[in-house]
User: Fold this.
Amino acid sequence: MHCLYSCPMSMTDGAAFILAPKLKALPLAHPFHETFKRLISDKDDHWTSGQWMTERAGGSDVQNTETWATYAPVESASSKALADGDYLINGFKFFSSATDADVALLLAKTPSGKLSTFLAPLRKTVVGDDGMPREVSNGVRIHRLKNKLGTKELPTAELELKDMRAHLVGELDQGVMTIAPLLNITRIHTFVGSLGGWRRAISITKSFAKARTTVGEPLWLIPMHLRLLADLEVKHRGSMNLAFFTIAVMGVVENDVSSEQAHLPRRGQEANIVFRALTATAKAVISKMAVAGIQECQESMGGVGYMDEADEPEFNISRILRSTLVNSIWEGTTNVLASELIRFLLKKDHFEVFAAWLSRTLALIQTSDLRDALTTAWSALQGRFSTKDQAPATIVADARRYMFTLAWILMGGLLAVDAERDSDPVTTEIVHRWILNGEGGVGDMVFRDIVPVRANDSVTAGGEEHLQWDCKIAWGVELPVNRASGHRSLQNAGSKL
Ligand SMILES: Cc1cc2nc3c(=O)[nH]c(=O)nc-3n(C[C@H](O)[C@H](O)[C@H](O)COP(=O)(O)OP(=O)(O)OC[C@H]3O[C@@H](n4cnc5c(N)ncnc54)[C@H](O)[C@@H]3O)c2cc1C
Assistant:
């Protein structure tokens, strides 16, 4: 379903998602039917799609689009082929990934000055003077390929569009509304890619720790290293729970079905609102956490982690790090997503609907200290959303804190529900660390009075028992008897530092 980084797969998935609901209203001869078939094909005839929104004047603010669409239908065409779209597109797209795609969904302004969504093939077939058919560009000229820090396997280019023939998708002048659902899909691919890169980095660094000795001891058993690996696992587990829960919510939205799982939102409006809020939150927060996590994995391998060996891609954390970095930028930067989330929640009755679902979900947690800690945090955050004493712009200024705090609550709640489902001891320990010990977590960008360093003073982090759990979390085994200490001066019991 997904590839490691946002790529043709995610944009293709998104393009198919946009076309699917439009097909019913179109005659069977319409080229969108064939396009859709190709986009979802798993055979050799499959097509990929690009998504061209960003321009020089702005990526976050697409209203600045300077690409124009002119209505100029092909007179002679009796039945419309994909290359015979009714519009001619002229403009310049500044960041266009998957330049080798078969089709692209793009935004352009019509003479009304409003944005519409179009679909165009990148190439078309023409008959030459010699009567022979040949493939030519559909008005697309590659101005230059971008020189990027990462995702080098994926060509990203600046494209000049000159009389590119395209079909209108959806309603005229409703471009943002038409293309918006695609972003939910590409954002999901983005955070799954971040999680995948992060997990691979954890696996590489764990393999290294198993093979490496330092101060005469195995690195994987040195207590501080063990704690670091356990902390990475805790953070990754929290992220996994939010990620795959969001995907489960997508299942409710796409299939319009009810679920037997009590914490999934109800089909219809509730599921739609929760899905939109969760996709933005998961994309922004997990992408940031993954970068910090992968950097930690790199450092955990010492100098070897910093190497960039092209012929050993499967061990190359540097490559994973630089390719994951972009996940915080494309498909909406962290700021843009945080702003979007808050403005979305403050619209109409969205916050009430979202809050009702989250409160209901937290109430499902059986263990009282876990439930109490999370509901206290959620009540405090709910209070901050009030527009009684503050203008929405004031809330948006702090949108990152709202979003990361919400993510901490969501991940904690989902971890708790998961742990209670089968009482798995390691998951239960992870939940305690997350909610009560102030371990793991989503980083610094939270309201510190809501996400305390430690919620419950009676819980002690550290000590022998903690070390034993570190080992179970990181390695899934009991701490061996012949443990390590981390320094030569500590190897003889009782010796001074
Ligand atoms: C490798 C790569 C591939 C890409 N591929 C594609 C592609 O295939 N198709 C495509 O359409 N785009 C693509 N992009 C573009 C990408 O989506 C944009 O770069 C991104 O959306 C940010 O837009 P921008 O570059 O115009 O930055 P700007 O919008 O200028 O943002 C600059 C800074 O301002 C902040 N900011 C912007 N608006 C606000 C706001 N309202 N409130 C607070 N802060 C704000 C941002 O967070 C950012 O930190 C790609 C980018 C990269 C790096």
